[in-house]
Amino acid sequence: LSLNPHAGDGGLLGMEEQEVIIPAMKEMEEKGILCYGPYAADGFMGSGNYTHFDGILAMYHDQGLAPFKALAMEDGVNYTAGLPVVRTSPAHGTAYDIAGKGLACEDSFRQAIYVAIDVFRNRQREKVARANPLRKQYYEKRDDSDKLKLDTVDED
After folding, report:
1. C-alpha dist (Å) from residue 156 to 50, 149, 151, 153
2. How much is the pTM?
3. Cβ distance 28 to 35 under 8 Å?
C-alpha cells in the first residue's frame, strides 16, 4: 500500500512513493520477488483488490490492521515477520473484555496457532535447504561426435 493518500497523486501529495517505495519495489523485483503497487490505501481493501494477492504490505500499523480486522475479525491472524521467534496473534487480540464469559470464538486463536506451526516448519525446511545446497555443475560443451547414433547398425 502507499504511504500517502491516493498513492501520492504523482508527487502532489508526497514524494515517498516515487523516492522510496517504488525504488525499493524495483530492487525486490531484481532479486526475483514479485511485488505490485503501491496502491492507494483508502480504497484497496474496500474494493476487494486484496483478494488478488497472497500478502499485503502496509506502510504503518493502523493502515493495514484496521481494514484487516474489519474483514477477518473471526478467523484472521496477525503475523509479525522478521523476528527471530515466530509471533502470531488472533486478529481480535487478547479480548480480555470477553474472557471467561463464554462469548469468545476460538477460530482466530486456532488459526493463529496453525499459522505459527506453518511458519516454524517452513523456517526449519529453509534451514535444511540452505545447510546443504546442491552444487552447480557445469559441463563443457562438446561437439556432435559423442552423440549416440541410432540410425546405424554395428557390424559385429
Report:
1. 70, 16, 16, 9
2. 0.64
3. yes
